[in-house]
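Researcher: Predict the fold of Diguanylate cyclase.
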Amino acid sequence: MVDHLRTRAEFEQCLRANENGEVTAEFNGMHLRSVYQPIFRRDNTVAGFEALIRAVGVDGSHVCPAHLFRCLDQSHPDFANQISVDKLARVIHLRNFAKYAGQHWIFLNMLPSSAVASIETFSNQNLMVQRLAEMGIPREHVVLEVVEHLHSDSVSLSAATNQSIKNGFRIAVDDYGVEGSEEARVRMLRPNIIKIDRSLVQSYVGGEVEAILRSIALAKEVGAEVLVEGIENQEEYDAMKALNVAYFQGFHLGMPQPLSEYFDTNPLDFEPLRQAK
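Model: Structure tokens for Diguanylate cyclase follow.
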């Protein structure tokens, strides 16, 4: 069993191409593939896609992403393996996204335990910048998602995110509004985008409006745009469109699937299977 992928050659050895030309990966008995969920603007056009990993074990069983990327202490025996999967996922996400990039953004999740190091890698290493350039993906189209309440060292995370923004990347605070989220940390991070957690959407539709309105006000204060995630029905979508929200995401608007399912024969001509209503 390989504990930790370190070199480009080691990552390359894990990569495969399936019958549709999509890049997948094999690592420690798991088959990894990319799916992408569209993110819509207010005018129903697609701003970009959140890249998500799907994993299948050797026995054909699906591995839950929440378990795969659960919070682990550095002393945990699976920690190094988890870091490798986290990095390998971004490798295949970017490779598959490259031929469809166009003007769309790609949202990449950062594992909490490695977010600072991962962000610094994207921001500071010339090799990563060069690889993005080779793939035709502008840095300003890469959105790095962090979960602020899962980080104990807010100062280091803030320094890394600020450097990323200076170097042309975008930063999104993910899952904002769940227990543990703090306005002070968001003020320190000053992200480009705040992704409002589904729980606040449900509360708002249920009549508890204060939490999401406070989150939107916080975004305005720090100069961030708002993305509401987890929209699962028309009622929720209508309610969110009535607010001052820039972007929308959820199963009601588009399911996670390979990018090839969203494009016609010309990769630069986007034809979503399901438009936002």
